[in-house]
Amino acid sequence: MMVGRFGLAVPALALAGRLAAQKRREESGNALPVDTITFGAVMVVTALLLGALTFFPAVVLGPIAEAFGR
Q: How far is residue 64's CA from residue 43's CA, in Å, rounded to a whole number?
């Protein structure tokens, strides 16, 4: 059990340490600004859309399944 637990934790921590030790790079002209209202709105709309796409098929198929079950 210890090997299973620490066998994954040690490489994950080593990778995190290696990524944290990297030097910061200068921002290029192609960078997407993530501190704007537009970016926030796109993220919120994307989250709502993905949530709706996972929830609404069950809502639509529920009555159809009940009709076949009778």
A: 33
Domain residues for the domain of 47 are 33-70
pTM of the full structure: 0.50
Is residue 22 one of the residues assigned to a domain?
Answer: no
The tens digit of pLDDT for each residue in 40-68 reads 999 999 999 999 988 888 888 888 888 88
Q: Quote the CA–CA distance of 36 and 4 in Å, as a whole number.
A: 42
Contacts of 22 by beta carbon, 8 Å cutoff, 6+ apart: none
List CB contacts of 32: < 8 A, sequence separation 6 or more: 39
Cα–Cα distance, 1 to 9 (Å, whole number) = 13
38 is a domain residue: yes
CA nearest neighbour of 32 among 24, 40, 21: 40
